[in-house]
Amino acid sequence: MRSPRFAPGQSERELIESAFVEVDDIISYHDIVAAEKMALQKGMNFGVGRKYSVFLMSVRENAPYADAIDPVTGMLTYEGHDVKRGLGIRHPKKLDQPLTTPKGSWTENGKFFRAAKDYASGLREKPELVKVYEKISRGIWSYKGFFELLDAKIVSDGKRNVFKFSLKPVEKKAFNRIVELPHNRLIPTAVKMEVWKRDRGQCVQCGSTKNLHFDHDIPFSLGGSSLTAANVRLLCAKHNLQKSDKILCVAPWLFASLTAVSHVQKHAG
């Protein structure tokens, strides 16, 4: 989690309680609860935030659901969830994933399915905005950012019918403005897991195991890749901030140099 800063009129207690996370922060389930101000007992949580929903996902081996990220487009395919175990249900994986409850109300599958179909058919002007947290390892999560729910379908996995939700990665700007996110900006799960293991779950600068972040060695904005572990490392909030400050100091000089080079090349041609 990032080191938050005071907002005008904000007390220290309010600052502590208003947990703030950024994309690629490494967090615990407790941090997710603090950020969302609620205990998320389910992986699918429709409309729980201010103008957004929440998915908890995992693409690890032996994960309970077949979630997937397309490495070419960055699209997230999120699998719906099973009927709850209990009340005579011993093998949920053998049953179709439910659209409604026995009482006829919508399940979380149903709520998201309806929202997706309403948008895909034009009945809804804007897609449902979904905040996604990804499980990296036992007790270890990473904030993946916002996605737009574009469509959904019910498919057979060979044994039963399951829901498949299609989501596009986006970036949420100031004033709730949503912009496209380059597909290659997302750090793939495989890369995160490789980096986590390589860096031993600690900051490469000081060895801290707190307030960690998956950091681009060469920033993505300057051409650094998200797709290779060679350009991704673990940094704590302190050293990530120091790096950001250095980039901000160097950026004007770098921009001026690049502009000068471009000017010379233009006139030389």
Radius of gyration: 21 Å
Mean pLDDT: 84
Q: Give the name of the CATH architecture of the domain at 12-186.
A: Roll
What fraction strand?
A: 25-35%
Low-confidence stretches: 1-18
N/C terminus separation: 49 Å
- Helix % is 25-40%
Tally the beta strands. 11
Report the total helices.
5
CATH T-level topology of the domain at 12-186: PUA domain-like
H/E topology pattern? HEHEEEEHEEEEHEEH
Bulk shape: globular
Descriptors:
single chain; 269 residues; alpha+beta; PUA domain-like; nine-stranded mixed β-sheet; 5 helices; 11 strands; 26% helix; globular; disordered N terminus
Provide structural commentary.
- The chain has 269 residues and is α+β, with helices and mostly antiparallel strands.
- The protein has a domain at 12-186: SRA-YDG (PUA domain-like), CATH 2.30.280.
- The protein has five helices and eleven strands, in the order H-E-H-E-E-E-E-H-E-E-E-E-H-E-E-H.
- Strands 1, 2, 3, 4, 5, 6, 7, 8 and 9 form a nine-stranded mixed β-sheet that branches. It has a two-stranded antiparallel ribbon with strand order 10-11.
- Strand 8 and strand 9 (178-180) form a beta hairpin.
- It is globular and about 55 Å long.
- It starts with 11 loop residues before the first helix and ends with a helix.
